[in-house]
Amino acid sequence: MKEYFLLLFMGVTIVLIFCTLIIGRIHDPLVKYAQRLLNVAILAVMARAVATMTASELTASIAFSIFFACIDWILLLLIDFCFIYTNSKKENLWYHILSAFVAFDSVTMLSNNLTGRVFDCYPVITAGGDFYYRTGQTPLFILHLILCYAMIVFILYLLIKTTVKSAKVYKAKYYPIMLCLIVIVVWNGIYMFFERKIDTSVIGYAVLGVVLSYFALVYDPKDVTHNQ
After folding, report:
1. What is the per-residue burial (b if ≥16 Cβ within 10 Å, else e) of 69-99?
2. SS3 assignment, position 19
3. Taking the model in full, what pTM does it have?
4. Which residues are CB-neighbours of 188 under 8 A, at least 6 positions away?
5. What is the pLDDT of residues 153-193, one digit of tens each?
């Protein structure tokens, strides 16, 4: 079974790398924000792959630490991206405070291998006999989740606010990104809160990478309307 998950992670990584290379040919100020986001997403997928494939508790713990830290920065970079994408005004003081929280949370995640106070790894065995690690939650990890969900809510707020204000023809630029983000959150929530053994929500990263690259940097509603 692990071989299938390895192929899955490799497929997601290839899709994200492909998206990064394709959008690199586009001349748009959004490209650098999208590429930063996709690059961190690639690192997150690779870390999650190591955590899934390894039989070593130490290796799994280090990989999970990197993965959780990457999630912090993916969401912060997505906020950065959405500020530009939605033409929203960025409050620098608020943003710097949020960045400080993200930096602190990332350091906390990465220091878990020294402190062991953020999360612990424990083995789980599937019905088919496969061996995996997953993480147990602590109060510090709950704070990490609160920070992540708060950033997700803010991202959705930016997208929804812009969608409501936009002309009908432009709404299609925002709906797919919102839908993908919501699906990934729900998908990951099912893994976390229903004690599923394997987190497959990283598939959503590939979908989000494609959707974000296309609808933010390629898709032009005016061309669609004109062709109709």
Report:
1. bbbbbbbbbbbbbbbbbbeeeeeeeeeeebe
2. helix
3. 0.92
4. 199, 201
5. 999 999 999 999 888 888 888 999 999 999 999 998 888 87
